[in-house]
Amino acid sequence: MLPRRIRSLLFAPAVRPDLVRKMPATGADAIVIDLEDATPPDAKETGREELRAAVVDIAGTIPILARINDASTPWFHDDLDSLPEGLDALVVPKLETVGGLDALQRGLEARGLDLPVVGGIETALGVADARALLTHPVVAAAYFGAEDFIADMGGVRTTSNHEVTVARSHVAVAGRLAEIPMLDMITANFQDDERCRRECDEARELGYHGKLCIHPAQVTIANEAFTPSTEEIERAHRILAAYEDGKARGIASIAFEGRMVDEPVAVQARRVILLAED
Q1: DSSP labels for 70-121?
Q2: What's the whole-model pTM score?
Q3: Which regions of the chain carry the CATH code 3.20.20.60?
Q4: I need a surface site. Which of 30, 45, 152, 256 has the fewest CB within 10 A?
């Protein structure tokens, strides 16, 4: 099963057992052994073999997910057939239709696999229909994939992320309506810590719960960004204390440290405290 909180979801290619064996020591909340983009077409079977071996070696040390190839590829059914016991969840990329999710659910049930699915919203169609996709009962969490989305759109990726602002926000809203954890896009330049940190902050501000990571250095950044700071927690407690005092005096909107505090602000403060307690 998925952990209650995923601030960092670290990926490594299935065909890189040297990297996979090091993943439990990275501090990631969960890891993904990737059979999809990170495993070349001529190495898919090798990747499946390495996945099975890795699960035997590291199961129980950290939540383990496997990303399979999507249903439009020739590897989809073989990936499902090869999934080993000991996985905590399945990552399924490029969700696009409810019918495809129905087929995925039937495929899992036919194989006796009771695995929660982390779905990827990373195409134009997936973004457009994100609410219907993310409310499907097989989907337990989801992520926004900016690189594939822009490739599908025929656009250009930039460091400003302006080209994915609308889609990124739309997917976050869909995830909120589905009441599932949402994970933000990768930072492809794993040497750019500043950009990773900025994107984590943006994602949290949009309502995302964590980030996809492709390098251990990004794990620390994501864990810190999606964990409320001591200052945030203390301020949240002060806000709630002042707000509750105001309500007790029959005042539903109070002035606190130079800003207005009413129920929406109190909701945000309660969420900070809840995140700190996880």
Answers
A1: PTTSTTHHHHHHHPPTT--EEEE-----HHHHHHHHHHHHHTT----EEEEE
A2: 0.91
A3: 8-225
A4: 45
